[in-house]
Write a structure and sequence with these properties.
The protein has 555 residues and is of the alpha+beta class. The chain has 13 helices and 18 strands. The protein starts with a helix and ends with a strand.
Length: 555
């Protein structure tokens, strides 16, 4: 169930993260699309702005009374002063070459006769024969268009464009639904392109080192680029995202736009990367927290199970010596034992069980002190080889009685080590006892001491049942015992190696183990030797039963 819940939790977190990443990229793409549409609107607004540029000089014309204008022209051959003021302002605009007036009924173009041209100096229309044939061509086109529009049109003037050559304004008398004349304004093409369109294109769309939009003004009939917002970029039909026509203006000219999406993505990238980074960090922390809680829960559960087994085991182990001591004590107290030999036997049982009980209690106390962080060691410079000689001498008989072959290699001359004597005895005793307990057929115990560089290395080796790869990383944990049939039958609390590791580390050492199933184990303990200037070779006087050969010795 724990695994199922963990998998469900991680799946949910990954799913939510994937949705957030998808949302971020969707938002990014939406932003880019929104920017693209915004640029398209900008181009459309620019087209309207260009169109308005040709119309604003004639502001005020819509408020003129066309019936009065027509009447004044018929009577005097001229227009009222207000109308002429509008014409004067328009004539000052460099985009127009001249302003002509052509009565709707005039046959001047057909007969190549005079037209009326507005003269700025006297603010009057005067006859002239100096006009381009294009004026009459545009006039004919304007007349044709107005014939189709006049019956439905509700304003007093109508602006008509003759491609990119000129502007015509039909003056409409709404009282009788008729056009009584046309204003014709030929466009100065050079000024329109070089003095107006090119500068305004660059001003509007060519700002910055890498503009988000490049716009070309192209004459599609002759495939010619008239103007561009960025002269460094070449027009490429495949890169065009959209095109824009001028409403009622420049019939053969169109705006072609290429959106530089890299500028959009570059602008959106920092925000996207920041959001993805925050999301990634949050994901790592969240999954890490879930895994930490899961692992902690499993460890706590395993530790609780081990503690429960330990309590049951240690309770049983404590009861055994107490029961033996109680039974022996009762027999002695009742006076039923009067034989000297039996008295000695009972005393020996009570003593051995008391020693056993004391060792168990000491082991538990050491664990409790270690958990409380209390230091119960007293390190001092010692001759580790002498201590090992002493240990071997004291335990050699016990090891032999168990049927073990003991092999040792303990040099007489070794550097001094800062070490607690009691700790070393506990370390070696626990490792040797483990070797004895977990060896079945090949009963072998090896104790080796060597000096390599700045380290003193102690090895305890056996040819026992070994440790599995799965268990080897847990054997130094408290209460841990590998689930093995032999180990399950062997008395123990899962504390020995934990105590050994703790004592080794308290003495500034390290411990490692190498093992394989059915081939035995080797525990390697390393202690730092005292500095060279403090080293004093220790040639210990051999103990009565110590093994002193520097070469491996088998007994």
């Amino acid at each position: 169930m724990q695994w199922v819940l963990l998998a469900a939790g991680i799946t949910a977190v990954l799913g939510l993260t994937a949705m957030n990443v998808y949302s971020l990229y969707t938002l990014r793409n939406s932003s880019i699309e929104s920017e693209r549409k915004s640029k398209q609107i900008q181009v459309a607004e620019f087209a309207d702005q260009v169109r308005y540029r040709f119309l604003y000089p004639f502001n005020g014309l819509g408020s003129e009374n066309m019936e009065t204008l027509e009447e004044n022209y018929r009577q005097d051959g001229q227009f009222p002063e207000g109308f002429r003021d509008i014409m004067y302002k328009a004539s000052k605009d460099s985009i127009f070459e001249h302003i002509y007036y052509i009565p709707a009924s005039s046959q001047a173009c057909q007969n190549q006769e005079e037209l009326l041209i507005f003269e700025e100096e006297n603010r009057q229309f005067a006859e002239t024969t100096r006009y381009k044939p294009a004026i009459c061509e545009g006039f004919g086109i304007a007349q044709t268009r107005m014939k189709a529009l006049i019956n439905e049109y509700r304003f007093n003037n109508k602006v008509l464009f003759d491609t990119n050559r000129g502007i015509y304004i039909a003056l409409i008398n709404q009282s009788n639904r008729s056009v009584f004349g046309y204003l014709a304004m030929p466009i100065d093409k050079q000024y329109m392109i070089n003095g107006f369109l090119k500068p305004i294109l660059k001003e509007k769309f060519g700002q910055g080192e890498s503009p988000a939009l490049t716009v070309w003004l192209r004459d599609w009939t002759i495939d010619e680029i008239i103007a561009s917002s960025d002269s460094s970029k070449t027009y490429n039909r495949d890169e065009i995202q959209f095109r824009q026509e001028f409403p009622d203006l420049f019939d053969y000219w169109r705006l072609y736009a290429s959106v530089n999406e890299e500028s959009f993505t570059a602008a959106a990238r920092p925000s996207l990367l920041l959001n993805l980074s925050i999301l990634g960090v949050a994901l790592i922390f969240l999954i890490g927290a879930m895994l930490f809680l899961f692992i902690t829960a499993r460890r706590e559960r395993a530790l609780a199970e081990r503690q429960s087994g330990f309590l049951a085991n240690v309770t049983h182990e404590l009861k055994t010596p107490l029961a033996v001591m109680q039974a022996a004590g009762e027999n002695l107290a009742d006076g039923r034992v009067d034989n000297q030999e039996r008295l000695q036997t009972y005393g020996s049982h009570i003593y051995s069980e008391a020693v056993r009980l004391r060792k168990m209690i000491e082991k538990l106390l050491n664990v409790a002190k270690a958990d409380a962080g209390e230091s119960f060691i007293h390190p001092r410079p010692v001759a580790i080889n002498a201590l090992l000689h002493q240990f071997v001498a004291e335990h050699q008989s016990f090891i032999k009685d168990k049927g073990f072959t003991l092999e040792t290699s303990i040099p007489d001359a070794m550097p001094m080590v800062m070490l607690d004597k009691s700790s070393l005895n506990t370390i070696v005793s626990n490792l040797a006892n483990n070797a004895v307990k977990y060896s079945i057929n090949n009963k072998f115990l090896g104790i080796y001491l060597s000096h390599k560089g700045k380290d003193i290395i102690l090895e305890v080796k056996d040819h026992g049942i070994g440790i599995s790869n799965k268990a080897i990383k847990h054997i130094f944990e408290k209460f841990y015992r590998e689930e093995d049939p032999l180990k399950a039958k062997t008395k123990g609390y899962g504390l020995g190696l934990s105590i050994v590791k703790n004592l080794v580390e308290l003495n500034n050492g390290t411990i490692n183990v190498s093992s394989s199933k059915e081939r035995g184990s080797t525990f390697t303990v390393t202690f730092p030797a005292l500095p060279e200037d403090e080293l004093q070779p220790s040639k210990q006087t051999p103990q009565p039963n110590s093994i002193k050969n520097p070469q491996p010795h088998v007994s």
